[in-house]
Amino acid sequence: AATKLASAEKLMYFCTDQLGLEQDFEQKQMPDGKLLVDGFLLCIDVSRGMNRNFDDQLKFVSNLYNQLAKTKKPIVVVLTKCDEGVERYIRDAHTFALSKKNLQVVETSARSNVNIDLAFSTLVQLIDKSRGKTKIIPYFEALKQQSQQIAAAKDKYEWLVSRIVKNHNETWSNVSRKMQSSPEYQDYVYLEGTQKAKKLFLQHVHRLKQEHIERRRKMYLAMLPQAFEALIPDLDEIDHLSCVKVEKLLETKPDFLKWFIVLEETPWDATSHIDNMENERIPFDLMETQPAEQLYEAHLEKLRNERKRAEMRRAFKENLETSPFITPGKPWEEARSFIMNEDFYMWLEESIYMDIYSKHQKQIIEKAKEEFQELLLEYSELFYELELDAKPSKEKMGVIQDVLGEEQRFKALQKLQAERDALILKHIHFVYHPTKETCPSCPVCVDSKIEHLISSRFIRPSERNQKNLLSDSNIDRINLVILGKDGLARELANEIRALCTNDDKYVIEGKMYELSLRPIEGNVRLPVNSFQTPTFQPHGCLCLYNSKESLSYVVESIEKSRESTIGRRDNHLVHLPLTLILVNKRGDTSGETLHSLIQQGQQIASKLQCVFLDPASAGIGYGRNINEKQISQVLKGLLDSKRNLNLVSSTSSIKDLVDVDLRIVMCLMCGDPFNADDILLPILQSQ
């Protein structure tokens, strides 16, 4: 209770924990070794202490107060540890203060930092009357205000951290230096301390790392079904294997390292592999996780279902071939009830069965027509007594039908009467005007086959150079890569296929070409998205885009593809003919955007040294993809490029060819199977 203290050349300290450890703390000496006391904080612990009686404490405080009161100095009663305070103790302490004259009480918690400043500022105001009077706030109200203040400061600090820290590899030392001058950082550290600020930073970094790992995990799991398709596509090989045995089987595959990487340390998400963005191969220890096992089971189930569906297709086809109810020309609606059962409906959609039925109908109709043609040849005497113009009367047609009506080959076309009558008329026309064009066996007419064989074996001098150089057997086939993002490639491939015949043939300038399409929409460095495969050698590439992102994807994919062939012998991809095409977004009529995309496309086309097509130059309206005319132009350009390559690379000698003019008389029935080479080559060689 002394008001004058003397402690010359002694250090100040703030708590007893510093005693004996003075060197570890900031060293301050008491001013001039003397200190005058201007006021007192009288502290009362209102928590429940071990082996301590609160009433005894209150008696001690009362006696202490009596000593302090003699000094005539201001006194403030401070209730400490209110965060653990006992309600009765707090009430008794207030009662004690009320019994004294003008004694103010401040409820505090040092651990929660509640009302600490208020306790000192209240005492300062009592010492210095010129200061404004401080309002004393109860503990719980002050705690609420402080919680709100801390929450607001925490939100601002977390916002600051999220704005600055974008990478999970950031360190606290670097980031704290960047935030040092930010008021959000300063306010939170003032309220909660550096350790809590660091803790929030570490939580944010941990969250970023988990999000990064989850993105990589999803990418790997998305690639896993493709890896299964490439490495273990055979059901017989894996049908009864456990996941552990499948892992061993995968390691024996030649292409294993194209899809997987075996890490020295595991698990993969605790290694540096998560930051290796260049390597997109799947960590092999991922196979031991439950999602990977589920994907393997899904792959297994898919293969089993595909086998079952294939079995259903075969069983259905066998039903068609053996059923006596399936006759040429019978509609699906009439045939369905005879051949369908519950198992068929369980495994395949009706549209698939309809397609199989349609193909089967085509086969049996063609066979029935061939057999009917044989029947007409057998009854050739029916057609000898017609008029010179070969137009039979109704009576004559009736006689022909009466004579043939009992024949099974005639009845087989009962549901195709119009076609049957057309075959009869065509046969009559051939009898009286026998040419290659009217031959019922066209295009396997023997005359046509002989002419084609002779023209393909021998070339006249005037046509020798050009025809020989263009005799590449692959000239009748066009392999086309379609490159585009977000469904563009698949959509255009479907549109082109819709313009083809049923067997993927496309007509260019009156000639039929086999068209093979390879739409690519993913990473071209992956085997599944490669421009070329052992069975597919591209002749050209259509590059589609409708936005900046899809144009960037095209450029990046072309560059990756070209880089992959540098230094190889088969580096023809470097010179692969390209066509860059702007495809309008459906419903997008923004001229500004379209003009910008056209300019960017022209720049990229100049850089890649390729053809550029835009909607305006092709006469295409908004909301439409490229039309049939454009497709034909592009394919014709690729065909010309292919021919030019053949002209340059051809090394076949044509000097020894001679001009041959042959006249061969052959007695062969049109349509009969025979090997023309066996018959004609000896004759041609002798000439």
TrEMBL record:
GO terms for biological process: regulation of axonogenesis; regulation of cell size; Rho protein signal transduction. Residues 663-687 form the PG2 pseudoGTPase domain. Residues 150-207, 309-363, 365-430 form the FF domain. Keywords: Cell projection, Coiled coil, Cytoplasm, GTPase activation, Nucleotide-binding, Repeat. It is found in: Cell projection; Cytoplasm; Endomembrane system. Residues 472-647 form the PG1 pseudoGTPase domain. SMART domains: FF. GO terms for cellular component: cell projection; cytosol; endomembrane system. The keyword Repeat applies. Transmembrane segments: none annotated. Residues 293-320, 358-385 form a coiled coil. InterPro entries: FF_domain (IPR002713), FF_domain_sf (IPR036517), FF_RHG35_4th (IPR057284), P-loop_NTPase (IPR027417), pG1 (IPR039007), Rho-GAP_domain (IPR051978), RhoGAP-FF1 (IPR032835), RhoGAP_pG1_pG2 (IPR045786). The keyword Repeat applies. SUPFAM superfamilies: FF domain, P-loop containing nucleoside triphosphate hydrolases. GO terms for molecular function: GTP binding; GTPase activator activity; GTPase activity. This is RHG35 protein.
